[in-house]
Amino acid sequence: MSKFAVIDTETTWGDEVMSVGIVIADAATFELIDQRYYILTPFKNHGGMYSSALYANGIKPDRECSRERAIAELRHFLSDHGATSMFAYNATFDYRHLPELNHLAWYDIMKVAAYRQHNPSIPPCADCYGTGRLKRGYGVESIYRMLSKKLAYCELHNALTDAIDELKIMKLLNHEIAKYALAKI
Q1: How far apart are CA 169 and CA 148, in angstroms?
Q2: 185, 183, 158, 171: which is closest to 50 by C-alpha?
Q3: How many domains is the chain built from?
Q4: What's the confidence (pLDDT) of residue 1?
Q5: Residue 21's closest CA among 115, 140, 134, 103?
Q6: Could you list the residue range(s) of the whole structural domain that residue 24 is in?
């Protein structure tokens, strides 16, 4: 694989996808190559925990459209880049909400980032299960802070910025893309 995708979604109170952010990255360097951001109608008007972040920091979507149109465009976007692998933090959530993309190979970034044996930034005093997984504090915000040493970092909960931050987590973990085979869902 030469390129891969990282995706994030935000949902409404009714558990409908209201926004999708996706980035394409180089599999060797983990550098961002391209990105797309969709706000889905009519769901954007249904309200959700992170509705206020839809346009945060002046971020504008590539398109506000129906779910069907967004998915069709995302399929073309992925195909144009030759990306057949999809990564997400807590990937089962996004996988469940985007069944139209289940033909891709999905990987969970959290299954690497939250484990002591894969994340050297987890301090020795951290409370972990026998498997090496952190018992708490393994969300995007906590892991990003741990890896970057940027203790003031706050997750924006905008689908695009969150996808970018999840890619940064992968880069900061400094594993080759093959490492994520253990995180396939």
Answers
A1: 8
A2: 158
A3: 1
A4: 82
A5: 140
A6: 3-183
